[in-house]
Design brief:
Layout (H helix, E strand, L loop, with lengths): L1 E3 H6 L1 H9 L4 E5 L2 E6 L35
Parallel strand pairs: 1-2
Antiparallel strand pairs: 2-3
Length: 72
């Protein structure tokens, strides 16, 4: 797919949906090709999720001190 710079500015969200679906978009200024919009490569590693504490709390978290006395 080819679009002008003005079309790319006006319809960026629509173009991004097409790129996410696997298309590439050639952006022209007049008849001169300027850029190609393609999907970014996936980032390596595990995606962190807000609130995900996996690995943040050590195994000793629930250990009580030796001098702990529960309230009656």
């Amino acid at each position: 797919m080819e679009v002008t710079v003005q079309e790319a500015k006006t319809h960026l969200s629509r173009l991004l949906r097409r790129v996410e679906a696997g298309e590439s978009v050639l952006i022209r200024r007049g008849s001169e090709p300027v850029a190609i919009l393609v999907r970014a490569p996936a980032t390596p590693g595990r995606r962190r999720i807000w609130g995900d504490l996996t690995g943040a709390i050590g195994p000793e978290f629930d250990d009580l001190p030796d001098d702990f006395e529960p309230h009656p």
